[in-house]
Amino acid sequence: MHEDRRFSRRNLLQTGGAVVTGAALSISGPAASATGPSIPADTGAVQGGRIQFPNWRGEGDTPPPPPPAPMPPDKRVGFAIVGLGRLTLEEILPAFAAAKSARAVALVSGSPEKARLVAAQYGIGAEAIYSYEEWDRLKANATVQAVYIVTPNSLHRDQVIAAAGAGKHVLCEKPMATSSAEARDMVEACTRAGRRLMIAYRCQYEPYNREVARLSRSGELGRVRLIQAFNGQTSGLPEQWRLKRALSGGGALPDIGLYCLNGVRALLGEEPVSVQAQTYSPEGERRFAEVEESVVFTLRFLSGAIAQCTTSYGVYESRRLQVHTEKSDIDLENAFAYRGQRLVVSHREGKRGQRDEVVIAPKNQFALELDHMAECILKDRRPRTPGEEGLQDQILMEAIYEAARTGTVVPVGPLAGTSAGLDATRGPALDDS
Predict the structure, then answer these.
(1) Which string of DSSP letters, residue by residue, matches 24-72?
(2) pLDDT per 10-residue tile (average), the chain, 433 residues
(3) Is 208 a residue of the active site?
(4) d(CA 168, CA 162)
(5) What DSSP string runs through 358-422?
(6) How many other CB atoms are found less than 10 A from the CB of residue 193?
(7) d(C-alpha 223, C-alpha 88), whole Å
(8) Which residues contact 211 (CB under 8 A, 6 or more apart)?
(9) Whether 163 contacts 149, CB under 8 Å
(10) Pick from 393, 399, 362: which is nearest to 199 by CA?
(11) What is the pTM of this model?
(12) Around Cβ 191, how many Cβ atoms within 10 Å?
């Protein structure tokens, strides 16, 4: 997927960020590409359909990014957001302000009062508010081209099938469903309707996670041997829906452990051949009467790589991804968090060891995935994380639970269209601009 090239300070800079080596800071990017008398220094000029400015800063400063180039609002893909819970209100709706190709045009909620307030806050007309039963009325709204399902996991199947039946493309939160059987139903419904189905694996669109995948697959740091993925946090309220098996399908594994599972698959570009696992819940703890608190699972890959993954609802918040190759240690702090990623690469430089911090301009992960879905609709492309990707994770999570239940090694295999095969069908590489 990526060309091999020797890992060096110069190569790190080709990632679109910067590398900090000791006290030195080196910058990459088109610092000088937009300079010259043809572009006024402070007023800019229109070039290639975008407004361009020359880099006005000196050589010691990071060149600023180009101005955003969003599509006109009436040309963007209109989304109906299904579910007005924490994630929608805290992250997803605010992310539309940073999106270039997507806009929020409708809301679907079981609370009319809440929906009216949110619609007013985001400039959505009262006529574009729907209940969960009004799919026929939503179907008639031509400004809605896609729906974003952000409801408890057990509701995803029926809502995705209803959205596809209404002629809408679907972006669905992870985990995709509560079982692989439900996930298959969702994929088949969207295929029959001729609609795109994308699963919201936001980390596959986040620049730091993508850089870890690039470094891991390129071979420039040697072959990947071991991976450690950890995603943990504390869960306080026993009444929370994620602690109810009927709504969630499981505990820490499908909620936050899925980031470890999907993240490892994404960075290697291959599927595991076997899994081992253990689950744990504190005895007598009311919060974990129905679902597990912690899971430890090991994935073995045909390439020889081994991934040790741990997830828990009972520990101080930590989200880390470490990749150990023959020539380096790649450490991504806050790997699965909404923001705050930090990437450090340790390797040999001549006769000494060196630690380089790779600095990449942060971007809103939710805006990136919204824009990717919008571009796939506009250009008739398969999403990078289609329904088959979510289905494969459901199959693997079932294998993890089976391995924990039986105490045995459970063999697994690839689903047609996943892993390295997925890369060939996802369309062009994501735009880094």
Answers:
(1) EEEE-SSTTTT-STTS-TTT-EEETTEEE----S-TTSPPPPPPP-PPP
(2) 42 45 38 56 83 86 83 93 98 98 98 98 97 98 98 98 98 98 98 98 98 95 97 90 94 98 97 98 92 98 97 97 97 98 94 94 96 98 98 98 98 68 43 47
(3) no
(4) 9
(5) EE-----HHHHHHHHHHHHHHHT---SSBHHHHHHHHHHHHHHHHHHHHTS-EE--PPTT-THHH
(6) 18
(7) 39
(8) 15, 17, 343, 358, 360
(9) yes
(10) 393
(11) 0.87
(12) 12
Q: Which residue among 100, 130, 168, 174 is the active-site one?
A: 174
* Distance from C-alpha of 107 to C-alpha of 116, rounded to nearest angstrom: 9
Q: Write out the two tokens for 24.
A: 């030195």
Tokens (6 digits) for 136:
């026929």
Residue 278 phi/psi, 5-degree rounding, is: -140, 145
Is residue 174 part of the annotated active site? The answer reads: yes
CB 157 within 8 Å of CB 249 = no
Q: Which two tokens stand for residue 174?
A: 């992870």
Q: Which tokens belong to 1?
A: 């997927």
Beta strands in 197-325 (DSSP E): 197-199, 224-234, 272-280, 294-301, 306-312, 314-325
- What secondary structure, in 3-state letters, does 228-252 show? EEEEEEECCCCCCHHHCHHHHCCCH
What pLDDT was estimated at residue 416? 54
What pLDDT was estimated at residue 64?
81
Q: Which of 130, 201, 259, 313 is catalytic?
A: 259
